[in-house]
Design goal:
Length: 325
């Protein structure tokens, strides 16, 4: 059993995600509710090393649950992979009285959390990433908002694509995971969806599908392209050359990371933040909070990092069967 925690630190690391502020708010208020002090750490592990640490009160997180991004700011810290840097970070935590830490972020952030736990700081991870690519959980903070942001943009693009009888390629975020692209493909009724996990780079199939649709009287063609495949602009030029149909590329980019979080991201992120504090109060460490089968649960971080996540093949088949082929 890990040592008792009296002061809880909280940081956000890696890419920002809508709902992170809800999680921070929950950590602060749940800590105070349990009689613990709580300290915010700005700019993730980089800020920890620079001792950008300050005590937080309940009022510090007032009026934040509806805001996108992270009030603690975030950064990536490659140096945190070095054991001597982790030891220094653990000493800094001790210097500031932090004996429990909540890390809100993705896989890379959790590896840092594990290293800190091994260095003697009770650490709990909370999954914050719009990519939904953490294997131990069916939900990650920010995914729902990011998908809804992309869906709204794609609906608007379809309107103008129809007016001009165009083919439109819309690139959404997701370097190694196609969850945003797949969900948008189904929700927006896209004609084609290109996923890093499944795309065979057979552009002739795309061309044939576009021409076939035009012969059937379709006035537009939407292709959702995941960031991990990319090159949307050059793909648009090749498709236009092959089909003779005006083709435009739109890269949604970082707009998917911003914006006010949805109700789901606010409620789930709040619940995960509160559970992280409860785990620390129970003396637990090196755990990550997850959501599976309708329940909020926790896993050993190393076990969680070793899990493999695959896109549901039924969703893939459903997307294909509904896209008009």
């Amino acid at each position: 059993m890990a040592k008792e925690v009296n002061t809880i630190g909280v940081l956000t690391s890696g890419g920002d995600a809508p709902g992170m502020n809800a999680a921070i708010r929950a950590v602060v208020r749940q800590s105070i509710y349990n009689g613990k002090k709580v300290k915010g750490i700005r700019r993730g592990y980089a800020g920890l090393l620079e001792e950008e640490i300050f005590e937080m009160q309940s009022y510090d997180v007032s009026d934040t649950i509806q805001r996108g991004g992270t009030i603690l700011q975030t950064a990536r810290c490659k140096e945190f992979k070095k054991p001597e840097i982790v030891k220094e970070a653990a000493k800094i935590c001790g210097k500031h009285g932090i004996d429990g830490l909540v890390v809100i972020g993705g896989d890379g952030s959790f590896r840092g959390a594990t290293a800190l736990a091994e260095a003697g700081v009770n650490t709990i991870g909370v999954p914050g990433t719009i990519d939904l690519d953490i294997a131990c959980t069916e939900y990650t903070i920010g995914f729902d908002t990011a998908v809804n942001t992309a869906i709204d943009a794609i609906d608007k693009i379809r309107d103008t694509s129809t007016s001009h009888e165009r083919c439109s390629i819309v690139e959404v975020m997701g370097r190694g995971a196609g969850y945003i692209a797949l969900w948008c493909g189904i929700a927006n009724g896209a004609e084609d969806v290109l996923l890093p996990e499944y795309y065979d780079y057979d552009e002739q199939k795309l061309v044939d599908h576009i021409i076939e649709g035009r012969k059937k009287g379709k006035q537009h063609h939407i292709i959702i392209n995941a960031e991990g495949i990319g090159h949307s602009t050059s793909l648009a030029k090749r498709i236009e050359a092959a089909t003779g149909i005006e083709t435009r590329a739109t890269i949604l980019g970082y707009m998917q990371r911003g914006g006010s979080p949805t109700a789901k991201d606010r409620v789930y992120a709040s619940t995960m933040g509160a559970k992280a504090v409860d785990l620390l109060c129970e003396g637990k460490t090196n755990r990550v909070v997850g959501y599976r089968h309708g329940e909020f649960v926790d896993f050993d971080i190393i076990e969680a990092l070793n899990m493999e996540k695959k896109i549901d093949s039924f969703l893939i088949d459903t997307c294909t069967s509904l896209n008009g082929r």
